[in-house]
Amino acid sequence: PVNCLFLLPVFFFQMTKSVTNPEELGGLASQMTNDYGHLALQGRMAAATAEPEEIGFQIRTRVQELGHGCIFLVQKAGALQICPTDSYTKRELIECARAVTEKVSLVLSALQAGNKGTQACITAASAVSGIIADLDTTIMFATAGTLNAENNESFADHR
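The structure corresponding to this sequence follows.
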């Protein structure tokens, strides 16, 4: 779901920027709708597997709230296409985009809350990989003889 979440704010930004070119809004709204559809499907799977159940409920609820925000945003984009010079509708579109961006961050926080164990494992694996890489580098330099002690001992003696 995170991949889709990163795409949605880009479309919101483009939508608010397209206030000056309302003819672009239709394509942007269509793309945002497709991305939200993918997010909703993946969000449902994430909610079903989240532990504890409360996190799954939060994911589901926040994805639904994001969907409602997307609906309002698409409606405002359509209204602006009908009347491209209406400054009130332009402001409403920008406010809807801002609200949807906030909802995206809420979905992200819910996903991260349900992903703490996974993130801890990723962090630990990354730390272990770093240690292994450091050891490999040290062994490479020691084998090449650049880390030999001053008292004529070799790495092979300690290996």
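Helices lie at 2-17, 25-49, 53-82, 87-113, 116-144, 155-158.
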